[in-house]
Amino acid sequence: MNIAVIYGGRSGEHEISLISASAIVRGMSKENKVVLIGITKAGKWYVQEDSEYQRICADEKAILTIKEDEAKAVSLIPGAKKDAFVAGGKSLNIDVVFPALHGTYGEDGTIQGLFEMADVPYVGCTHISSAITMDKEKTKMIWQAAGLPVVPYVCMKRFVMLDSVVYDDFIEATEKELGYPMFVKPCCAGSSNGASKANNKKELNFALMEAFQWDDKVLIEKSINAREVECSVTGNSVTYPADSDVEEVVAYIPGEIAPSHTFYDFDAKYNDPDGAKLLIPAELTENDLEKIRKTACAAYKVLDATGLSRVDFFIDRDSKEVYLNEINTLPGFTPISMFPKMCDAAGLKFPELIQLLLDEAVARYNAKQQLSTSR
């Protein structure tokens, strides 16, 4: 099987993508042919030399780079299937794509729509569910409509920032509804980029200015004294056959994040090796662990998720209430990332996980080929 691993991208998580992709490449069976496609921060695509693949496989600590060679610039041909990816005038002959991309232009439905137009199988959620889950406000609205628990929140759009009277009224109403402290985060950014905690109006104003650097919509949430618990989920929530081990929706052993920082921010996730303790399984009763798994599956299914996702929860230390926080449709695959660690704790080792995701992508694609697109 010829697999294109696509990494980098126009995203605040570009560097994290390089690390995730490196681990994914090393985890793939050597029976497959791996084609590396790097996307620069400017959004240009380049196929990489075979020597880059060999370098990554030979060194467990090596991190992928992106060499820009215009002779190897990649273009896509809509509807060309295996021949959709072209570089230097030649087809790359791709059977399936593994997009090791995070955040904007990676897990927001844009590149998934491109794969759909090219008519190639790809790992992860569809363009529709990717776009919905990237928007934290829309995700919460769907979960609420399904009767699933979410932390109280309001959403501020950029037009509010542009009118001082409207802004002041909005802040006053938000203070009354949520009270301090609050968490402020961009609606459509990942890895806690632009996220911060506000303990008073001055901090809230600064937090909003920072968040609006990343997005045109900002989520403001009530702060709770929370434990952070996560759960990995795989499978096809829309059409999986009853007898399919590949496409069955499965929730793995939940894990808990115990951050040493004020909250689990970008530095705690990726830069500080002591930024958090990862507890797998989470320190919960068997009944509570099962509740997390069932809620994770419900949250995954109502969003029509496929492939993989990491579903994140808050557990209020005071009331013991469980809340859904967010869902990540292309979670990190770095050495300290929770998604593969939780799968591993359930007995699904890293190479088997990578193969499962590839097999699920192909199975979903083959099933979709049976649908009618014209009369």
| C-alpha termini separation | 33 Å
Shape: globular
Element-level helix/strand string: EHEEHEEEEHHHEHHEEHEEEEHEHEEHH
Please report which band the strand proportion falls in: under 5%, 5-15%, 15-25%, 25-35%, 35-45% or over 45%: 15-25%
Secondary-structure-based class equals alpha+beta
The helical percent reads: 25-40%
Note the total helix count.
Answer: 12
> What is the alpha-carbon Rg in Å?
21 Å
Largest sheet: 6 strands, antiparallel
Number of strands: 17
Low-confidence stretches: none
Kindly report the average pLDDT value. 93
Please describe what this structure looks like.
With 375 residues, the chain is an alpha+beta fold. Helix content is 35%, strand content 24%. It has helices at residues 14-27, 50-58, 110-118, 127-134, 136-145, 158-161, 164-178, 201-211, 266-271, 286-302, 338-345, 350-368, and strands at residues 2-8, 33-39, 45-47, 74-76, 85-87, 90-91, 96-100, 153-157, 182-186, 196-198, 217-222, 226-236, 250-251, 255-259, 276-279, 306-316, 322-328. The strands form 4 sheets. Strands 12, 13, 14, 15, 16 and 17 form a 6-stranded antiparallel sheet that branches. It has a 4-stranded mixed sheet with strand order 3-2-1-7. Helix 3 (110-118) packs antiparallel against helix 4. The protein is globular and about 60 Å long. The two termini are 33 Å apart. The model has no long low-confidence stretch (mean pLDDT 93).
